[in-house]
Amino acid sequence: MPDGMSVAEPVAMNVARRSRAWSRDAVLLLALALLPTTLGGFWVYGIGVCMANAMAVLSVSFLLRYGGEVSIGHSFFLALGAYTVAILERQAGVSVAIGLPVAALAGVLLGLGFAWPSRKLSGIYLAVATMALALAVPELILQLGPVAGGYEGLYVAKAPLPGIPLDLQRYYLPLVVLAMAVVLLRRFRHSRQGLALLTARDHPRAAEAFGFSRGFARLAAFAISAGIAAIAGALLAFSASTVSPNSYTLWTAIYLLVGSVISLSGLGLVAALVGGAFITLVPQLLAAWGDWVPILYGFALLVVVILGDRPAETLTKLRGRIGGGRHG
Amino acid sequence: MADALTAEGINLAFGGHRVLTDVSLDFRAGQITGLIGPNGAGKTSLFNCLTGLYQPQQGSIALCGRRIEALPPARRAREGLARSFQHVALCPDLTVAENVMFGRARLGKAGWFDAFLPLPRGRAEAAEARAAAEKVLARLGLSAFSEALPASLPPGTQRMVEIARAIVAEPRVLLLDEPAAGLNAAETRHLTEALRALAAPDLIMVVVEHDMDLIMQVCDRIHVLNFGRRIASGTPAEIRADPEVVRVYLGDPDD
User: Fold this and answer.
1) How far is the C-alpha of B168 from the C-alpha of A45, rounded, in Å?
2) Residue-number span of the structural domain to which B105 is assigned
3) A221: distance to nearest CA of chain B, Å?
4) How many domains are contained in chain B?
5) Quick one: B143 and B218 in the same domain?
6) What mean pLDDT is predicted for residues A131-152?
7) Which contiguous run of DSSP H or E holds residue A34?
8) Whether residue B118 sits in one domain with residue B3
């Protein structure tokens, strides 16, 4: 047995790091909450979309962290959430306040629907299966016909709260939902289901020996991730004010994955915002520098190769090396 | 037999290769039973049949009279089987205390809402699980490490954490897969004492092990396998004196 001192030190450091993370997040949230008082409408719009995108990155990061799996198909669940909100507003006249919970539920159910037949797949095989989802999205939307607005898409313009300017609501809704998601995910990490998913990710046989089957872990991780993605889609539809098929292509799914990797698949506020900023800005920049597209594509492929069979482990190592520790 | 884990007429083959041939043996409550044999004797295969990883082609396995051979591993946990792994299988992202808490996660009733929201039932359950984990860690002398990550601990301590995880839900059967593998002499001594201290009147303990000293010191009874058959059963003294066992272990000049 080693003496207790050798481990007491890192433990104290972890505790200190965690409390630092909390206060840093609180300051960041306060700053984000105050931003619209000083910034113009363009920035408020952009940062609102960025926070919705941050939520989308969280969904992919969740699957990586808790399922140990890579998805290149989360644009499907994003589109599901976005179109749920847009179609509910157009057909039933209800705002995102109703649309968002419906989208979340639809995301979880369709996530289960996808995860069940693919529960035996993992690694690159699962990634390719999810890619099929992403490829199907634009066609599926067009198949819906006039209900989904075709190529032009639909507007989302109904304010959930009366009396507050709509452009401010488009900013504060993703902020509040993102902050809640970060807090809830931090709680989840300590729940019995969270412990089960993390153990199943690294040692499926150990999880089985303690009563949690591989299938349970796979379905749970995918369904929660899909639910988060659908919520992100709902936020994105509301914040960006429109939905259209070309916002949900295979590229969207690839950006999400790269965004998640760039944020080291952290589930904290900072990591999510870094990923969100990446996928908000890069498509804009690429539109200007079209020549770089193949390079980004190559980079994305490289990322998948580097992550290899154990993406969660690789990213944990990276996080440790960069010094972010276990936060998030 | 009432308070025992029994295997009856177990036959296991992979393709045409017979691994276990008509193996019948029992593991009694209140005893530590060793399962030994030279390499390739089939002890790990038998162990995997007990945990549910392998399905024997023939034979039955019963716990306190209840047939369990058809149950998958996750269901056997519900019947009260718990195990440790030859290669430490702790989650590297979880602290020692959290790894141990996972050992009783299946007992929890907290649903998915509790997992995300600070609801009273989930909080009470988490507090209860933590208290149980701390109690088991204290019992095994591991309290100092409860907030450490497994990777920061030496192999012997990691192994003890696995045992803590296995006993935290108070199982009826504790299956230990080569608990001394990779441990140094001091760690093995510590493990020996800990295993003796774990023995309880209603607990069935099974130890698969290479380390003869550990087996002889720890076990009340020993089953010896060779070439997929049981060749002897008895107390450590009887096993030591058994000519067949001596031949298998000492008669081979390569050993």
Assistant:
1) 52
2) 90-168
3) 12
4) 2
5) no
6) 86
7) helix A5-38
8) no
CA-angle at B59, arms to B58 and B64, nearest 5°: 155
Please indicate whether, in this complex, the C-beta atoms of A316 and B92 are within 8 angstroms of each other.
yes
Task: Inspect the interface and report whether the beta carbons of A195 and B102 lie closer than 8 Å.
Answer: yes
Tell me: do B255 and B175 sit in the same domain.
yes
Q: What is the pLDDT of residues B100-122, one digit of tens each?
A: 999 998 888 888 888 888 888 88
Q: Are residues B101 and B132 in the same domain?
A: yes
- The answer to whether B90 and B74 are in contact (CB under 8 A) is no
pTM: 0.87
Alpha helices by DSSP H, chain B: 43-51, 73-78, 96-102, 112-116, 120-139, 155-167, 185-198, 212-218, 236-241, 243-246
Helix pair A250-262, A123-143: axis angle to 10 deg? 140
* Shortest distance, CA B158 to any CA of chain A (angstroms): 10
- pLDDT tens for each residue of B164-207: 999 999 999 999 998 888 888 888 998 999 999 988 889 999 99
Which pLDDT band, with edges at 50, 70 and 90, does A308 fall under? low
For residues B1 and B72, membership in a common domain is answered with yes
pLDDT tens by residue, B43-97: 888 999 999 888 888 989 999 888 988 888 888 988 889 999 988 899 998 999 9
Q: Among B141, B168, B195, identify where a domain stops.
A: B168
Q: Closest residue of A to B155, CA-based?
A: A1
Which residues in A have their CB inside 8 Å of a CB on B?
1-2, 4, 6-8, 10-11, 14-15, 184-185, 187-188, 190-196, 198-199, 201-203, 205-206, 208-213, 216, 313, 316, 326
B177: domain CATH number is 3.40.50.300
